[in-house]
Structure formats: structure tokens, C-alpha cells
Amino acid sequence: QVQVVETGGGLVQAGGSLRLSCTASGLTFYDYNMGWFRQAPGKERERVSCILWSGFATYFSDSVKGRFTISRDNAKNTLYLQMNILKPEDTAMYYCAADLRQYTCPRAGSGYWGQGNQVTVSS
Questions:
Q1: Over the stretch 72-109, which tens digit does the pLDDT of each residue have?
Q2: Under DSSP, is residue 90 helix (H, G, I), strand (E, B) or coil?
Q3: CB atoms inside a 10 Å sphere around CB 93
Q4: Residue 27 · residue 97 · CB < 8 Å
Q5: E strands along 9-91, which residues?
Q6: Is 56 exposed, middle or buried (0-12, 13-18, 19+ CB in 10 A)?
Q7: Longest dimension (CA), the chain
Q8: Which contiguous run of DSSP H or E holds residue 99?
């Protein structure tokens, strides 16, 4: 059974930092490209960043470029999102997703998704 679990969210003041982690089990982590997505109340889910199985980052949304970094440790089956200079508009539920290597970013409604982890940035 595949499980994808996000941790590391919480409440932080604007300008602060958080690091999200995502651990996947029940699959061969190395075989999957990974991504982070987020959804704020009343808004559509937004793709934040994606990374290939090899560790090469393939996508950052314009809203997080220069502030967020994506990385992975295949030996630990773990994906990371380092978030710096956080802004109130980064407040959202953050989701981790895994998808087959042929897709550079996980697809909505496919692959494996976590339950989400809340990040709240106060002004």
C-alpha cells in the first residue's frame, strides 16, 4: 500500500522560513518524479514546484521563484520544500505528489498524493 505523508507545516511570521518534508512508502521512490502543490481557501490547486527522479528541478511557479527550493533524498524516500521569505499569500494547504517518470510534474487526479499539510503565514 502506497502512503505519502507531508510534515513540517505550521504557523510562521512573514519573512520566516519553513521546510516541508514528504515521505513516500510502498513504492520505489527512485522511479517517480515528485511535486509540491498548494491550495488556498477559495482558490484552485496550484502547482508550486516539481523535481525529476534524478534530482533535477523542472518547475517553480512565478510566485515562489527565488524563495523556495525543492530537493529529494532517494535513499530516504523523502522530498523536501525549503520555503524562505514567506509571505501571507503563501498560506495554503501544501500537498506532495508522485507520478511516473514520463511526466515531469505529477498530474492532477493521478499518481499518489498526500493528505496535505497546512502552512499559515501571519503578517
A1: 999 999 999 999 999 999 999 999 999 999 999 999 88
A2: helix
A3: 18
A4: no
A5: 10-13, 18-25, 32-39, 46-51, 57-60, 68-73, 78-83
A6: exposed
A7: 40
A8: strand 92-100
Phi–psi pair at 55, nearest 5 degrees? 100, 0
**pLDDT for residue 17:** 98
State the cell numbers at 105: 510534474
pLDDT tens digits, 17-63: 999 999 999 999 999 999 999 999 999 999 999 999 999 999 999 99
Q: Give CA–CA dist 49/75, Å, rounded.
A: 21
Phi and psi (nearest 5°) for 114?
-80, 175
Which are the contacts of 65, defined by CB distance < 8 A and separation ≥ 6?
none
- Measured between alpha carbons, how far is residue 62 from residues 7, 23, 57, 117 in Å? 24, 26, 14, 21
Q: 24 by DSSP, 3-state: which? A: strand
Bridge partners of residue 13, in order along the sequence: 122
